[in-house]
DNA sequence: GCGACAG
DNA sequence: ATCTTGTCGC
């Protein structure tokens, strides 16, 4: 029973899983078409049932922040691995609509297609706004890989059997790897390239760091 | 039954 | 994600 009033908890997740299967069919993995000058960094802060979604816009070259927006909303679902998009996408869409600038690419704190149904947060958000996105997660959701050397720039493919999902990337010497995967309207080389080019001195890419900082301070 | 499990 | 101070190492 898709879309109804009250329903059993088990049915809710089953319905959301079906919805993800539909959404995943809209995901396009293709080379970034635009020239990238403005990049949007996305992250959310959540406490209890109140959440805030933040998007910062950084300019290239320089990675200087030129704008940022946020959106506050109520979180209806509890966290469950594989369903993060349903909690954070609404908040990010709200912030997206308040932006004055239009980023050429969005970097999101979460997986792209490296997801059980190939529709992680970055892909989900990308399909909803139909804009280029790349997923940049701090830990793994699914897939197998061999640990890359400890030097910045090292990487290894993230695989589900023989299917490539993304890359496990060392963005800084002697720190845990990041998990990069294309979200929507970007491809694997794009994910690897941008994750490394937007990382300077810190493990997490600057755009996402800025968004994270804003979400944390506003939430007070 | 056991282990994995984005944020 | 959030709860939380100082401390060890690059
Ligand atoms: Mg986050």
TrEMBL record:
Listed GO molecular functions? deoxyribonuclease V activity; magnesium ion binding; RNA endonuclease activity producing 5'-phosphomonoesters, hydrolytic mechanism; single-stranded RNA binding
GO biological process per UniProt: DNA repair
Domain of life of the organism in this record? Bacteria
**Pfam families in the cross-refs:** Endonuclease_5 (PF04493)
Tell me where it resides.
Cytoplasm
Sorted keywords for this record are: Cytoplasm, DNA damage, DNA repair, Endonuclease, Hydrolase, Magnesium, Metal-binding, Nuclease
Which EC number applies? 3.1.21.7
- Provide the top EC class: hydrolase
Q: Does the keyword Protein biosynthesis apply?
A: no
The reaction(s) catalysed by this protein are: Endonucleolytic cleavage at apurinic or apyrimidinic sites to products with a 5'-phosphate
Q: Where is this site: Interaction with target DNA?
A: 79
Q: What is its main location?
A: cytoplasm
Keyword match Lyase: no
GO CC, alphabetical: cytoplasm
Amino acids binding Mg(2+): 43, 109
Cofactor dependency: Mg(2+)
Instruction: Give the family per the record.
Output: Belongs to the endonuclease V family.
- Function comment: DNA repair enzyme involved in the repair of deaminated bases. Selectively cleaves double-stranded DNA at the second phosphodiester bond 3' to a deoxyinosine leaving behind the intact lesion on the nicked DNA.
- Its protein name is Endonuclease V
């Amino acid at each position: 029973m898709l879309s109804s009033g009250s329903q059993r908890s088990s049915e809710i997740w089953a319905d959301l899983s079906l919805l993800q299967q539909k959404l995943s069919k809209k995901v396009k993995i293709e080379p970034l078409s635009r020239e990238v000058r403005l990049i949007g960094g996305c992250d959310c802060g959540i406490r209890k049932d109140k959440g805030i979604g933040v998007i910062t816009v950084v300019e290239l070259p320089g990675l200087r922040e030129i704008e940022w927006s946020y959106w506050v909303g109520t979180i209806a679902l509890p966290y469950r691995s594989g369903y993060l998009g349903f909690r954070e996408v609404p908040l990010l869409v709200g912030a997206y609509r308040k932006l004055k600038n239009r980023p050429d690419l969005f970097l999101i704190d979460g997986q792209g297609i490296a997801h059980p149904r190939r529709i992680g947060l970055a892909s989900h958000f990308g399909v909803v706004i139909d804009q280029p996105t790349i997923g940049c997660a701090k830990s793994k959701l699914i897939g197998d890989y061999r640990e890359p050397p400890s030097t910045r720039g090292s990487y290894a493919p993230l695989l589900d059997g023989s299917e490539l999902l993304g890359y496990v990337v060392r963005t800084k010497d002697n720190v845990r790897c990041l998990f990069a995967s294309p979200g929507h309207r970007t491809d694997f080389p794009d994910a690897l390239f941008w994750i490394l080019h937007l990382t300077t001195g810190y493990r997490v890419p600057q755009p996402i760091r800025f968004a994270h900082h804003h979400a944390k301070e506003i939430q007070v």
